[in-house]
Specification:
It is built from eleven helices and nine strands. The strands form two sheets. A seven-stranded mixed beta sheet has the order 3-5-4-6-7-8-9, sandwiched between helices. It has a two-stranded antiparallel sheet with strand order 1-2. It is of the alpha/beta class and 258 residues long. Helices cover 40% and strands 16% of the residues. The chain has one domain (2-119, 173-247): 3-Layer(aba) Sandwich (Rossmann fold), CATH 3.40.50.1820. Helix 4 (128-137) runs antiparallel to helix 6 (156-171).
Length: 258
């Protein structure tokens, strides 16, 4: 447990001399989602996963809905584990956290892998009141969803506020991506997710094209067949390959993944 502010974050560190990789979760997910990526990359890396505030096994926090708190928590986890220069891998919400952390510490980010997230899109079809209404309707199932690693131990209003803030963060990502001086690799999914339809998600992904044209440090490592929700489960090899690409290593020929 990594103590920070009014909470403690449940972290897992495989240790060892390998290149450190820190994994940043989806908005209401737990560190368990990374197990296939970690297994695929294997013991040649030092894997650090953790549950964000009020998610998974981490404790509740008054700032559990705050994007800024989650960015600062990356530093807390790395400091607690004695890691200075990691590769950073973020999925969905964690991709936006990864971009912000790396832009604040460009000398420390060895590279960033963004898994179907951190698209500079303003989501015009998701006004704040619509987001709040959706979460109010879901308030009865949140305790069950939190036990399944699909929601946080927060109120419906806090879930909504987290979503609203993320929409604002994504709309402002363009300048951060344009200014990235570290290598960035995207792994892009297809199709919908639990909170957005196919057309909305494809519209968001399309905003990446101008960024790729402007900044040669940013590339798409792979576009995969799975959708946003299932990408870490079904296309974990593509995510692992993007990590290897930044680390300058390759998958061993004929290696079979679990």
């Amino acid at each position: 447990m990594v103590p920070v502010d009014d909470t403690a974050l449940a972290a897992t560190d495989t240790g060892g001399p390998g290149r450190p990789v820190v994994y940043l979760n989806g908005q209401f997910a737990s560190q368990a989602y990374w197990r296939r990526v970690v297994a695929e990359l294997g013991g040649g890396y030092r894997h650090i996963t953790y549950d964000m505030r009020a998610r998974g096994r981490s404790r509740r926090s008054a700032s559990a809905a705050s994007f800024e708190a989650h960015v600062r928590d990356v530093d807390a986890v790395l400091a607690a584990r004695g890691v200075h220069q990691p590769l950073v891998v973020g999925w969905s919400y964690g991709a936006a956290v990864a971009v912000h952390w790396a832009n604040r510490h460009p000398d420390r980010a060895l590279g960033v892998v963004l898994v179907d997230g951190a698209f500079p899109h303003d989501y015009p079809d998701a006004p704040p009141e619509r987001v709040r209404r959706i979460w109010r309707r879901s308030r009865w199932v949140l305790p069950m969803l939190s036990r399944m690693g699909m929601a946080a131990r927060m109120s419906a209003e806090s879930h909504a506020q987290s979503n609203i803030e993320l929409i604002e963060i994504c709309a402002a990502l363009g300048p951060l991506l344009d200014g990235a001086t570290f290598p960035v690799r995207y792994v892009v999914a297809t199709g919908a997710n639990l909170g957005g339809g196919h057309d909305e998600m494809e519209s968001a992904r399309a905003t990446l094209a101008p960024v790729l044209a402007r900044n040669p440090n940013i590339k798409v490592s792979a576009k995969v067949a799975s959708n946003h929700t299932k990408i870490l489960n079904k296309d974990f090899r593509a995510v692992a390959d993007a990590v290897r690409e930044l680390a300058g290593t390759r998958r061993a020929p004929g290696r079979q993944s679990r």
